Each structure stands twice: as structure tokens, then as C-alpha cells.
Amino acid sequence: MSRPGAVVLRRPPAHRLLTLLLTMGLALFAIVVRLVLIQRTRTPDGRALRVYGYDQRVQPIELPAWRGRILDRNGEPLAVSLEARDVYADPRSVRDPTGTAERLARALDLRARDVLPALLDDPRDPGDDTFAWVARHVDTEVAERIEAMALPGIGLLPSSRRSYPARSVAAQVLGFVGTDGIGLAGLEAGYDDLLAGTPGERIQETDPLGRPIAGGVSIVRPPVPGSDLVTTLDRALQFAAEEACAEAVRTNGAKGGIVIVMRPSTGEVLAMAVCPSFDPNRFDEFDEERWRNRAVTDAFEPGSVNKVITASAAIEEGVVPLDREFVVPDEMRIGGFTIHDAHPHPPERMTLADIVARSSNIGAVEVAQLLGEERMAAYLSRFGYGRPTGVGFPGESPGLVPPLDQWSATSLATMAYGQGLAVTPLQMAAVYATIANGGVWVRPRLVAGTVGPDGTYTPAPPSPRRRVVSEGTAATLTQMLAYAVDDGTGTLAQIPGFQVAGKTGTARKPYEDRPGYSDRHVASFIGFLPASRPEVVIAAILDEPETVYGGVAAAPLFQEVARYAIRHLGIAPGRPVPAPPHASGLP
Amino acid sequence: MSAPARALVDPVPTPRPTGRGRPGRPDASGRGPGPRTSGRAPAPATARRAARAARAPSAAARPARDARARRGRLAFAVLATAVAFLAVTGVVALNALVAQEGFRIEALERRIDGLAEAYRVRTEEAARLSAPRRIAAWARRHGMRLPDEVHILHVPGPDRAAPVGEPHLSQLALKPIVEGAP
Fold this sequence. Notes:
heterodimer, A: alpha+beta, 33% helix, B: mainly alpha, 0% strand
């Protein structure tokens, strides 16, 4: 019993506590039940809401991989990737579209009227009205200026841009990449997998405002950069070839030109110039015709440069003694058609060397007739006609050689002097490289190796090679080709102090829409130097020059490129090769 | 029940238990405690009250014990607070260190990225500046041109390739000239 005035503390009644506990327990249970129900609820597309919730919280962000560089044989960059930003707009958040467009246009060096459509929320447009690109691949400096403007509704995303610092040099070989960084042409397309690398991924849990939640899910899979591609091209020689080609095209009023410089022993392509060229930094401003690497993708009727195969086959098969004299008229009738030499002349005595040096069509036909269709077809195939060289360039043409069973009465005759079949300039250059290489065909190549992300250089495997004609046949052909430059149709290709071996070609172009030949021509000169110890093979081709003859239009182009190659590569003159048996020298 | 509360509801002093009068364990029959040393019957109610009174602390001893208890509780509270404070401070400090290192790593990564980008930009700039077209244009503007002819100087002597590892004949021909030079 307590005393009066004392404070008595009593325990709360147990039933109240129990009631409160039960109420809280029930509320908690209800929440748990509701939570489970929501978690298990499936949307019409069959996905649980928790999956949606996870997707909202956890955002996978792709980490783009740096695209590898393309280098020349000396490590000079021909294509590199630089950091950039993409500018986008959320039209619904843009407050003053006109003012924003003007400010953006000033920063981006664009016209405001070109920018404005991306900023307008067009209710008629059924597409996404929350996102529109304003500009892609913007320089980081420009992007920083735009960011500093803090324009409502304008955002920036990280990206990269491809730069070709040498501009038009080797443009058709390098190709270019599209807006999304995927190779669209040339080596960029052919080696896209190697150059692109593997994108990484950052999986991060974020709050509703997109801010990372500390301690939340955070997984980073770093990207693997692409490998560098080391080409066989020599940037300086490539530029010289392009300059010479452009000048020859201008001088001869030609439609275009092609120059290929190869090392015959390895098959390395040191230069592959196609003119007119384009700047791959602004490829969309040029006609698509200029994008093509016509040295590899286009086939043309080679004309007289093909006589080297006819002569090789005849020597290898022993059907024509070198001192045998043919009586060669200036025209011949075959299968109802009349075949002419380039210039009218009375019947002349010519050896095989003379036929090559003077580029006699009729003489070549006479030799081919001794050879026969089967052997002619076999040698065309052995020299690589009718199939791609395997240089590793996308879209390489195999050329066009009719199957033997489809040859007409004139096929053997026309093919003997390079009409009625089509080859790529690279295939033709490879034929001359075979002669220069002692009769061994070596697959041309544009890639010297790769440099992995860890900096390890991996050289490309050596080019496959196969013997096509004997060393003796190649040496005899070399003498004939040197004779053609010394005293034949190729005198304009001579270089003082060096002996050049080569052959001119003048081919009529067939109509594109009907059978028969037009009055347009392809002029060419393909040769190598020095004749005794060939260091480089050079093919110079002009499309539709005003002066149609290869010896006049293309030989000087060959000479110009050869002179630069001698200086740049330090080529020493070799010994002179003896002249082959020829009519004026025979007893 | 706390001591003050007990004081409020039970103000009557309880006599201190004397000698061996402590309650014993329950016996085997489970009927409750009994004196350890006697086998007598349970004490009557008056005796129990007396025993309870004897067990209660005396009025003089209670304040001292309360003071000790307060000091003990205070010490416990201080210790617990200190431990909790140290633990929280330690965790926060560790977290701050981790975060600081994280920021440092992030800053270094940003710096690496920045330097890598600067390297790429410089490489591109160098390639652009050394581009043959630019150099050729510059040279042309300054009146330069490529030489017209390739001039080859022939060293006297038979012209043949030297075997691998041996000096070329041209080198042998040059040897006396070079060695004779002042």
C-alpha cells in the first residue's frame, strides 16, 4: 500500500501493447503481401514488374572501344580516331527554339535554319519527340562551348570521330567510316572487325535522376581497343604517285588514272593511286564514283600489255624460237573480222622480241595461233586472270575471262593482244611482278601487319607464291621488255642511268550498253626497274586520254613515278641486260 | 524495479538478514525454499515478514549502493557511447578514406584518359602537319621543286653484286679514297 502523495508508476495495460503490436504486424503483413503481389504481377508483355524496376534502376551503358589506327609502312598515321561529342536535343524541353538554334548554329558553324528542325516538337511527327540529333562528331572544344551555354533541352553525348590527317592521300585504299563509326569502304570496311575492337559495358544502379547510387550495383567491363593496321603503303610515294597521276590526267585530258607501285619480291603494294581522288574527312561531299578503288574493283580490257602473257607462253612452251622471223602484215582477217596493227605498215620481218617491242597485234595473233587456245587459256589462268588476287581488299573484282568452251573464232586472236577479256590493274601489275620476280607469282598485299592493343606488332604472313614460268623464260621476257623501252614503243619511259623494262598498252573500251568497241581508249604502261634486278613494278593507266597511245600518254606517267621511287627508295641502277634477238640485229 | 521506485512503493525498511538465514534451494518435493540447516516446517507469516525485513538494506546503506550503481551505469554509458562513437567514427573515416581513394582513382583515370586523348590529338596534328601535300604546297610556295634528273655516280671497278657479308666492290674502291682523306 502506497503512502498518500507518492507517485505510482503503473505498467501500461498489456492488451494495449498487444493491440498495437498486432496492428503494426498486420500493416506490415499487408505491405509484404502487396509487395509480393506487385512483384509477381506480370505485364501484358509477360514481364514481371520487378524486371521493369530493375531495368529502371540498373542502367547498362556501352563503353565504346577506340578504333585502331591505319598506318603506313613507316608508322605514319593515315587514319586516327579522336574524341568528340554528339549534340542532341529534347524538343519538349527546349524553351526558345529560335534563339537556341541561332546560338547552336554559331557554335557549330551551321545555318540556324538547318538546326531549327531538330529543336521543334512537331506534333504531326509520329516519331520520338524527346530526342533528335543536332550535330554528330563535334570537336571537344566546340562541345565545351555548347556545354557552357547551358541551353535547356540540349545535351551532349561522348563519341569519337575519324580523321584522315593526310586528307586525300590513299583515300580509295583507306576508305572511310560512317556516322556510327562502322567502316563503309576500303580497308576501313575490309578490316572493320580488327579496327573496331570490342565495346565494354558499365552496369550501374542509378536514382531516378540518373545519379549513381553509392553501394549499388556497379559492374564495369572495360572496352578492348581495336588493333592498328599497318599497311604496306609508303605515304610519300603514295602522294607522289597521286600527284603525278592527277597531273597526267590534266595534261592528257583523261577521265581518270591509276598508278600502282609494287615490290615484286614480296608482293607489297607501296602505292595505289586512283585519281581523281576525294577527301575521306568529307566523303559525303564527293561523287560516289570517286570512292571506288578502281585499281582493285574495276576490270578493264588490258590491250597490248597483255602480250607479255602471249610471249611468255610461247617461250615457255617452246613454240617460237627466239630468232624465228615472222612476216607480219598490218592487218589480218579472222572469223569475219579484220584485225589491225596500231599503225599501217608494209609486211615486216619480226622476231618475237620485235613483236613485243613494236606491239604488233598481228604478230601476237600469229604467235597465239601457234600456241593454241588450250595453252593460251591455261597461261591466262596461271598468271591469275579470272580470279581475285586475294590482296585483302573488299569488293575485289576477279576480272572477266570467258571460259574456254565459250571462246569464239576471234577470242584467241583478240586475247593475244589483250582485248576480249578484262582484268583489274592490280592483276595486270601482278603479271609484270611475276616476270620481274623470275617467273614466280606473288600475291599482292596491302597489309604489312597489325599492332594489338598491348602494342605487340604481328607481321602479316608472307604472301603465297607459285611458279608460273621458268626463270629462263622470265629473263628472256625481261630482255624483250627492256628492248621495248630502249627501242620500241616505250621510249618515253626511259630514265637516264637506269634500264627500264616495260610494255605499252592501248585498249579500246567496249560499249557499255551494246556489243562492240567505242572510240574511247585506255592507255597504259606497265614496267619495272632496274631491268637486271627489279626493285619496283609500276603500272600507269590513264582512262580515256585525248592522246590514246599508252607509249605517249601513260609512259611519261610511269617515268615520273619511277623517278620519284628511285630517289625515295634509294634504288641503284643495275647492269644492262642484253638485247634479245631482233630483226635488225639478225644476220 | 529500480531503487527509487522501490523506495516509493515500499517505504518500510526491510530488516537485514542475519547469519545463515538466506533462503535455500527448493527441496526435493518442490515445495519451496527452506532453511538449509534445519529440517523444520515452513515459518509462519510473521516470520516471513521478519525475514523480508531482515533482507532489505538498511536506510544508511542504500544511498551508497545507489551511488555505486549510478556510477556504474554512468561508466557503462560513457564506455558504450565511446565505443559507439569510435566505431561510427572509424567506419565513417574508413568510408571517407575509401571514397577519397575512389575519387583519386577516378581523377587519375580521368587524367589518363585526358593524356591519352592529348596524345591522339598531338599524333593527328603531327601527321597533319607532316602530310606530304602540305609540305609540297609549302615548298612550292617557297620556290622549291624536285630535281629533274637522277644523278648516279659510278665508282670505277667491275660492277657485280657482293656476296653476303662482304663489302661491295664500290666500297673497296672508295676505301683508299676515304682512308687517304685528311
